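Hi support team,

I submitted a single chain yesterday and got back a structure, but I'm not sure I'm reading the token output correctly. Could someone confirm the output below corresponds to the sequence I sent? I've pasted both exactly as they appear in my results page.

Thanks,
R.
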Amino acid sequence: MVKKNYFICFHPTDIFFSRYFILKKKLPKKKNILIFNSKLLEENFNLKIKEIKKINDCYNKTQEIDFIDLGWKNSIIYELKNNYINKIIRFILLLTKVKKFKFSNDDNFYFGGETISAFSSKAIIANLKSKNIENLYCFGIKNNYRDRDQRISIRSTIINNLLFLIKIPTVNVFVNKRNTIMQKIYIKNYFKKNYIFSNKNKIFKTKNFVKLDIKINNKKKSKKKQIIFIDRGIEFLTFYNNQNKEKYINNINKILEEISKRNWKKYNLIFKPHPRQKKINYKLHKFKIRYTNNYLEQVLEKNKNCIHCIIGITTTGIKISDLYGIKTYSVKNLLNLGESLRFKKTLINNSNIKVLSKFNQLKRI
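Hi R., thanks for writing in. Yes, this is the structure output for that exact sequence:
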């Protein structure tokens, strides 16, 4: 039997980078199968896989399964209101469907890191382990790291592990001081390797790093290149123990104003909201809103040659931009969000991202 490579990807970042992983590892198309959920990608991320030729060219087949995730609120009442029982029923049906898949012991299974702890990923892992299949791998754009000030939430851990009796992989759920869920980490390691992408030459002390040199045959050019500011919205402030909404908005306004004053004649200034961002709370000055419904990978695939630099805060978008070889800055240290070792360990280490710590550094972007 021909050994197959299954890629389990439910998030746009994993979808796009599975392609680069396949190209880097020179995995033949005829052996590659993508397991995903088109409804999730289209409704949540405005991404239609069937329309992206570069991705389809890497896979011989695609297999759709239901996407299920829960347990991201530290409240059983919230989970019950958010169709918890219905999701459990869907999960059991998913387990039944996955059991019918004809996996081989020689097959390889690559799980995208952005949804590695989702219940759909758990269903496949449980099925593989029940068949003693060992070739499980994880791939992604960042290291898995937990800040020391995070603690295990007993309540959320119970909510996430109610199905442990039927041998569903269990996780520990970690929260910050504001009781916001930050991470879910498997109690047991199910993966032979965790592949982390980078584009640097000097950090490969372990075979788990995969150096990417992303090349895009994009002939699109522009007389004025773009400076793109990628936002997350003020909702993400809940991930920080110490934050002040008013000061944060004022500092973002100051950053946008400073960039506008010095660059609006030379560059097209683009403000890119998060695809699920509901409101923009800032004065945009000379920035124009664009790419509202596009995921960053889509923007970079189409416009890489037209971009001067990308500026962000702590979003994974800055790591994605860096992996695409684009000059990238983080303004996190200008926003009084407090120190975060996880930010450094997961996004900044093993990258070329420049972290700006003084406002006058905006003059030299």
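A quick pointer for reading it: The chain has a mean pLDDT of 87. Let us know if anything else looks off.

Best,
Support desk
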